[in-house]
Amino acid sequence: MTKKVLITGATMGIGYALAERFAEKGFDLVLCARHEDALKQAKEELEKKYGVCVCVYAVDLCDHEQLMHFYENVRDQNIEVLVNNAGIGFAGEAVYQSIEKDDALVDLNIKAVMDLCKLFGRKMCERGHGTIINLSSTGAFQPGPYIASYYASKSFVLSYSRAMAVEMKPYGVHVCCVCPGPVDTAFYQKSGGRMSAYHTSAEHVADVIMHRYQKRTVVVIGSLNQFLCILPSGVKMKFLAKMKHPKTDHGRK
Predict the structure, then answer these.
(1) Least buried of 29, 86, 107, 241, by fewest C-beta within 10 Å?
(2) Residues 109-148, buried b or exposed e (16+ Cβ, 10 A)?
(3) In the chain, what are the domains?
């Protein structure tokens, strides 16, 4: 039986790069994202290039009803690898951040990750094998002034993943949490943040994940990022506050 991987946020960036890497290894793909047109394009490209079966689902994972309906549609597809990649972030002063935007961030970055881990994790435990890959960030290792909710959400993902890795190991299920630093994707444009001068590509992140996800519980990508993660949080927060301080009062009312 051909193995299947489910990837959320799969039409661009790290999600799409991982879809390509898993397709190269012969996995059939179950791809989830919000925009149907982008999913159809991804399906056409991946099936043509790699000759694998690609199923796509247009789902807003911020909506719990849509998430559960999606799960009911794919629960019996014998998902061997779950990749929780979808996420959003918003830059700016936390107190002036839109309540609606931050609620959506919590729904997607935290609640959807937790729910999908539970739903597919149970199936994997029953089978006695499977892998969960959760995308976090180097932002998980300290608070993030001027991008507070995003960093906090990624801290949850890291902590939750590490705990799940211990709990699920006796069932034969491996959990890996991946923590990239800045990645050259559309995230910064959408979040209103500024791209760091030190960044890497989504393709590089996908390559590292494929090399390490079966061996490690936590994967921090890049030697500089590995060093930065062990620095005192206070030092990093001062640097982040200067780097991410908004140049305008955009968003205040």
Answers:
(1) 241
(2) bbbbbbbbbebbbebbbeeeebbbbbbbbbbbbbbbbbbb
(3) 4-244 (3.40.50.720)
Residue 4 token pair: 């299947």
- Taking the C-alpha atoms of residue 235 and residue 201, their distance in angstroms, rounded to an integer, is 26
Tokens of 36: 């149907």
Helix, coil or strand: residue 9: coil
pTM of the predicted model, to two decimals? 0.88
Strands (E), 108-163: 130-135
Strand boundaries in the chain, DSSP class E: 4-8, 28-33, 54-58, 79-84, 130-135, 173-179, 218-220
Query: 190-232 pLDDT, tens per residue?
Result: 545 554 555 689 999 999 999 999 999 999 997 777 767 776 6
| DSSP 8-class letter at 210 | H
**Structure confidence by residue, pLDDT tens digits, 37-59:** 999 999 999 999 999 999 999 99
Q: Which amino acid type is present at position 140?
A: A
**173: nearest Cα among 219, 218, 120, 220:** 120
